Amino acid sequence: MTTAQKPRALALDLDGTLTNSRKEVTSRVRDAVRRAALAGVRVILASGRPVVGMAHVADDLGLDEVGGYVLANNGSKIIEWRSKETVFEATLPREAVEEACAAARAFGVDALAYDENGLFSEDPAAPYVERERFNNSAFATKVDDLAAAVTWDPNKVMVVGEPDALRPALEHLSMSLSGIADVFLSEPYFIEVTPLGIRKDAALGVLADRLGFGLDELMACGDGLNDIPMLACAGLAVAMDNAYPETKAHADWIAPSNEEDGVAAAVDRFVFGGRACC
After folding, report:
1. What is the dihedral of CA 210, 211, 213, 218, to 10 degrees?
2. Residue 159: which CATH number?
3. Is the dihedral of CA 4, 221, 233, 56 positive or negative?
4. pTM value?
5. For 177-190, what is each residue's pLDDT tens digit?
6. Residues 109 and 184 in one domain
7. Which residue among 151, 190, 209, 265 is least enclosed by CB atoms within 10 Å?
8. What are the CA-CA distances from residue 37 to residues 34, 40, 54, 86, 250 (Å)?
9. What is the pLDDT of residue 264?
10. For 210-256, how does the pLDDT look when each residue is reduced to its tens digit (9 = 90+)?
11. Closest Cα partner for 200 from 43, 21, 45, 17?
12. Which of 246, 222, 214 minimizes the C-alpha distance to 11?
């Protein structure tokens, strides 16, 4: 897609992209995304967040009315938001859940998992568990043994902690779960353990096939390390000014930061040709 072409689909990361530091969608950003949806652009919220942490954002944008998709857990669950139909889902094997929980204990960091209602952890008060809970406005439940408490098939498990403490845990899990699950950083302090082969780019490919658009017709906006595959596959890749340098390296255009309504600026520029209203 050239910058002269209007995108047919718009994939938006949430934290650090769509929302500001207070985890809010500003009125300017909300208006821009709604206008894009009403103009026929497929709106896809593509986040590492679980569904429970994305629902209020999707509703705030009016996707329950204008239509759109929630791509949660880095792509392991996709929901058409108006009908609430799950159109794709992948879950972790039991072995991956147990290994992630064991590694967290061995390396002195914390593991957490979600069900449809909230977050579960052996130490919900741990700083990076609390950061994840805050990011999702989720309810946290303390359990004695996370691996035993997870009796459902989760879409992902996270291992969180200080970046220096996470590095050996990341190396260990990358080796021990090779060929079983994907292991990667979404932030320097968050390890994501997801179903094998499931990342934002793969999930967007599934959705593109379903909806009949090409990835070259996709505009993707992101800031995080886990947004790199999404930006790399999109016809038009937009990174926020607050993005990691590694993420910016994959961008066709650098938008203003998430504190400066960068998503609205990108939508106005590439969907509406520089016009702030349609």
Report:
1. -100
2. 3.30.1240.10
3. negative
4. 0.91
5. 999 999 999 999 99
6. yes
7. 151
8. 5, 5, 18, 20, 25
9. 98
10. 999 999 999 999 999 999 999 999 999 999 999 999 999 999 999 99
11. 45
12. 222
Q: Which amino acid is at 106?
A: A
CATH number assigned to the domain comprising residue 258 = 3.40.50.1000
Q: Which two tokens stand for residue 43?
A: 């709106």
210 and 180 housed in the same domain: no
The residue segments making up the domain with residue 140 are 94-195
For residues 130 and 180, state if they share a domain.
Answer: yes
Number of domains in the chain: 2
Residue 233 vs residues 1, 52, 142, 196, 217: alpha-carbon distances, Å: 11, 27, 39, 18, 10
Residue 278 and residue 272: Cα distance in Å, rounded?
7
254 token code pair: 């650098």
Confidence class for position 277, pLDDT limits 50, 70, 90? very low
